[in-house]
Amino acid sequence: MSHKSYTIVIKLGTSSLVDEVTREPRIANMANIVETVVKLRRAGHRIVVVSSGAIAFGMRRVGVSEKPKQLAAVQALASIGQGRLIGLFDDMFRQMNQAVAQILITRNDIIDFTQYKNAVNTIQQLLAMDVIPIVNENDTLSVAEIKFGDNDTLSAITAGMIHADYLFLMTDVPCLYTDNPRTNPDAKPVLFVDKIDELAVKTDTEAGSKVGTGGMTTKLIAAELATNVGATTIVTLSSQPQYILDIVASIQNAPDGTSQEQEQHVAKEISAGRLPLHTRFVALPKNEQIKSDRRFWLLHGLRTKGSLYIDSGCYEALTRKDRAGLLPAGVVAVTGQFHESECVSIKVIPKRLGTGSESLETVLESAVEVGHCRVNYSSTEIDLIKGLRSSEIEKVLGYADSEYVAHRDNLAFPPESR
Q: pTM of the entire structure?
């Protein structure tokens, strides 16, 4: 029986690759990872690896026991460690006659949509050449303003960029629990999630391992991002990478059915020991997923520099299929400092200003983010023309580059609340 092939992104945390105590590479686990990835590739799947570990490898090389706080020192360690990390991966994959490629990225590399598409095309071309891309954030150059934040987020963005079918987040616990299993013996495993916003769990607020930066909270954020673009996201044990093979096989052989029937099937297989413990975050239905590259780029590729506040009536108009762009008349307030063509957050205020006794600050604090846009004017200019008709822009500014604050093609809204 022929099986469907998938595009799969596998995120490896630092603790998957480096011992927390000795800081030595976990060679046996890395070998297991390499074997698993190659088996998946030979089975016809398209695999992208998102790997942390450069800073930890650099720390080991120069004998640094604690991660420094100075940015320059961290970047120096990353520059030392990244070559060693990719070199070790290349050596191990070469033993199995599998070519790999290194891709280092920051948000600055995808700030322009053409650059974003170039990054997508490069990864897709590597996959077409049967090469396994190994992606990491470029910590040597990255600063706070252009960082993805953590590789959980980077892996989810990578999954969205290439329209992956599955994202595996490898971690030091086998699945998501209702509470921290290390401190609460009554914590229960969560096996199947199709409504992330209704998930009743307690997650960590600190970083994960001593050598990494991600915890379960970042994985939930990554899962929501990835499932919104159609990538079912799976959390499983990093020390047993071969579990990925079992889970993929179970997906290929799973019977069709409703979400509830699939959940029951997964629970039954895990209970019977035929499937390893894991958490499966189900992708949104196809008709709700973010399929437009530009929409995904606006929502997740760019960092917002400020906010535009609109009322609910304006929001309803902007989310219609026949919408126009955002007109200055629809803008109630502006916060932050930004330039033309930069990305800003769109927030909806609960009621029109002036209808209650609340101060402007109070009303803005209660606003809810609903989307992103790239603006045609700076924050200073928008503040001057907010609430006005487009015909009044030239009178106020002395020019009118556009009748819209943001063109319809530069507006993006996420799927509705799940």
A: 0.88
